[in-house]
Amino acid sequence: xxxxxxxxxxxxxxxxxxxxxxxxxxxxxxxxxxxxxxxxxxxxxxxxxxxxxxxxxxxxxxxxxxxxxxxxxxxxxxxxxxxxxxxxxxxxxxxxxxxxxxxxxxxxxxxxxxxxxxxxxxxxxxxxxxxxxxxxxxxxxxxxxxxxxxxxxxxxxxxxxxxxxxxxxxxxxxxxxxxxxxxxxxxxxxxxxxxxxxxxxxxxxxxxxxxxxxxxxxxxxxxxxxxxxxxxxxxxxxxxxxxxxxxxxxxxxxxxxxxxxxxxxxxxx
Length: 269
Hints:
By secondary structure, this protein is of the alpha/beta class. 43% of the residues lie in helices and 15% in strands. Helix 4 links the parallel strand 4 (121-126) and strand 5 (145-147).
């Protein structure tokens, strides 16, 4: 594990499960909404431009794909800070090497924060996404694992085999234990598949908490001002049984995420 890192962009010196049940804690005005619209337009416009720029390098070397993704994610963090007043910060020790990261997932912005600092981030993704223009090709180049429904085990076994043989680079495999984006204040159960993956990989699991959904909702255009945080927590070492592992993971992630959301001014019930 690397030394503790505190990375900041833009800084100087009782809900229905899985639904958008809580409104943003600050209702943006017309000016902020317009700023958010312009930010979103340029953010998505920058994606193909940077992809084209980094593609020649990415074709001959996987490091080119990783560099392109890091550059894009850091650009989004930087532009969010000055265009809409949404600063961002990474807390805790940034994982290195072969680890499993089990992260709270509230919006697209937590993906941006994770991929801006992890050396070799990769995801388990739906099989169909590998055909997505730009995104699909870059995802495969950085080592993301496309899976068919019901065939995750085979895909993970192939990934481990490729890493061990040198065909695929080592990296940090990111999984969302709740399976989808969950809005602040909403509840959704943690899926047992996380424990199965933890046992199969035999790697440390690093929980990650966040409050990004307070400022960047799952849906909609508006982004609000504030400090969005992703926090890497203490790792859970290999060897835990399924039930205690899942209980510890949920307790760590939810407690830390609740604390970050309160810090951001989100009213807890």
